[in-house]
Automatic annotation (TrEMBL):
<feature type="binding site">
    <location>
        <position position="57"/>
    </location>
    <ligand>
        <name>substrate</name>
    </ligand>
</feature>
<dbReference type="InterPro" id="IPR027473">
    <property type="entry name" value="L-asparaginase_C"/>
</dbReference>
<feature type="binding site">
    <location>
        <begin position="89"/>
        <end position="90"/>
    </location>
    <ligand>
        <name>substrate</name>
    </ligand>
</feature>
<dbReference type="InterPro" id="IPR037152">
    <property type="entry name" value="L-asparaginase_N_sf"/>
</dbReference>
<protein>
    <recommendedName>
        <fullName>asparaginase</fullName>
        <ecNumber>3.5.1.1</ecNumber>
    </recommendedName>
</protein>
<dbReference type="InterPro" id="IPR020827">
    <property type="entry name" value="Asparaginase/glutaminase_AS1"/>
</dbReference>
<comment type="similarity">
    <text>Belongs to the asparaginase 1 family.</text>
</comment>
<dbReference type="InterPro" id="IPR027474">
    <property type="entry name" value="L-asparaginase_N"/>
</dbReference>
<dbReference type="InterPro" id="IPR027475">
    <property type="entry name" value="Asparaginase/glutaminase_AS2"/>
</dbReference>
<feature type="active site">
    <location>
        <position position="89"/>
    </location>
</feature>
<feature type="active site">
    <location>
        <position position="12"/>
    </location>
</feature>
<dbReference type="InterPro" id="IPR036152">
    <property type="entry name" value="Asp/glu_Ase-like_sf"/>
</dbReference>
<feature type="active site" description="O-isoaspartyl threonine intermediate">
    <location>
        <position position="12"/>
    </location>
</feature>
<dbReference type="InterPro" id="IPR006034">
    <property type="entry name" value="Asparaginase/glutaminase-like"/>
</dbReference>
<dbReference type="GO" id="GO:0006520">
    <property type="term" value="P:amino acid metabolic process"/>
</dbReference>
<feature type="domain" description="L-asparaginase N-terminal">
    <location>
        <begin position="3"/>
        <end position="188"/>
    </location>
</feature>
<dbReference type="GO" id="GO:0004067">
    <property type="term" value="F:asparaginase activity"/>
</dbReference>
Length: 353
């Protein structure tokens, strides 16, 4: 008999709408299984269930990933064909990255799923995403962490857990980096998208040994994330109160941010800010950046010369969670640097397309 462990964590897929408000509701999680069992596409599977927390995913904090890990650790995963984790769409790419790192050597598939609307709304993709996840698990038995999410065209996309980017506002559509999902489900059959950035099936199947740092993964909540925009004024960021362990500074799409020095009081230059961080012993990382070998703008060169560390060929979502993991679980600067620069635990480092 096929066996799948279903982990409910909340989100719209576990929510009910009442008086025009959507909120998590314990009974709805189990309704998903009832709907599946009654569906024509149901397969013969024994589902075991648990619910370590029940949150709208916007309320999630990095400690919750450790809670999730502890809860899953109570089960022997070799008893299962795979896991399905229900989640909210808002922070799903971050949880998918966190689980990809924790379970990069897991021999069975772990699928995250979500829903755009509550299950009793006819527009909900929740049940379909569950059906695709079951079919992926039983059909491929691929190790690692994936996201199953149907797009507006009805394509049952499968994304690598480390490649998914935040959902687009207004359309609520997900995309993997380079706009290339790993593949899609054609009914019960998984079809990989042939593209230079995608790992081959052989590469995915290759056994990975568990990274030594990840025995008890801890994700630091002392990382500051910043995003550039015209006029970002670094005077607001002197770290007067609490000081972060590290900063991840997002960049414009071409790997740049403002280095413009203006006479006067306002600091628009990231170079200035990098120097402030360095003086205060706060490491600063830059992402997204293209891989070496491609041309760099002079602004990017100046940021790196000032002492910032580029994280190349990785999405911002996967980079942020990896920095959190490095600063939460590793001890020395050298270990952190090696981990961030030299490991690709589950295809978070992408080649150039
Ligand atoms: N569709 C959703 O699940 C959105 C919800 N706010 C969440 O992330 O929990």
């Amino acid at each position: 008999m096929n066996r799948i462990l279903v982990v409910f964590t909340g989100g719209t897929i576990g929510s009910k709408k009442q008086n025009n408000k959507i909120d998590v509701d314990h009974s709805i999680s189990f309704e998903l299984l009832e709907r599946y069992t009654q569906s024509k596409k149901a397969r013969s599977v024994q589902f075991d269930t648990m619910q370590p927390f029940n949150l709208l995913s916007e309320n999630l904090i990095p400690d919750d990933w450790a809670v999730l890990f502890k809860a899953i650790s109570k089960f022997d995963l070799s008893d299962y064909d795979g896991l399905i984790i229900t989640h909210g769409t808002d922070t799903l790419p971050y949880t998918a990255a966190a689980l990809s790192y924790i379970y990069h050597a897991c021999p069975v598939p772990i699928l995250l799923i979500a829903s755009n609307y509550p299950l009793n709304d006819a527009r909900s993709k929740g049940l379909n995403n569950f059906i695709h996840a079951v079919n992926f698990i039983l059909g491929t038995k691929l190790p690692g962490v994936y996201v199953s999410f149907e797009n507006r065209k009805g394509e049952a996309l499968i994304h690598l857990g480390t490649r998914l980017q935040q959902s687009a506002p207004f359309t609520d559509e997900y995309e993997s980096a380079y706009s290339v999902p790993l593949g899609y489900m054609n009914d019960e059959l998984f079809i990989r998208v042939e593209h230079p950035v995608n790992p081959t099936m052989e590469e995915i199947r290759e056994p990975r040994s568990r990274h030594i740092a990840l025995k008890t993964p801890i994700f630091s909540n002392e990382i500051l994330y910043l995003k550039p925009y015209p006029g970002l004024n670094y005077n607001y960021l002197p770290f007067a109160g609490a000081k972060p362990k590290a900063v991840l500074h997002d960049l414009y799409h071409s790997g740049t941010a403002s280095t413009r020095a203006v006479n006067g009081e306002i600091r628009y230059s990231i170079v200035d800010f990098i120097e402030t961080c360095t003086k205060q012993d706060v490491d600063i990382y830059l992402c997204p950046m293209k891989n070496e070998g491609e041309d760099f703008y002079v602004t990017s060169v100046h940021m790196i010369q000032a002492g910032a560390h580029p994280l190349a060929g990785i999405t911002v979502e996967a980079a942020l969670v990896k920095v959190m993991l490095a600063y939460g679980s590793l001890q020395t600067k050298q270990e952190i640097t090696d981990f961030l620069n030299s490991t690709s635990l589950f295809f978070e480092k992408m080649g150039s397309a």
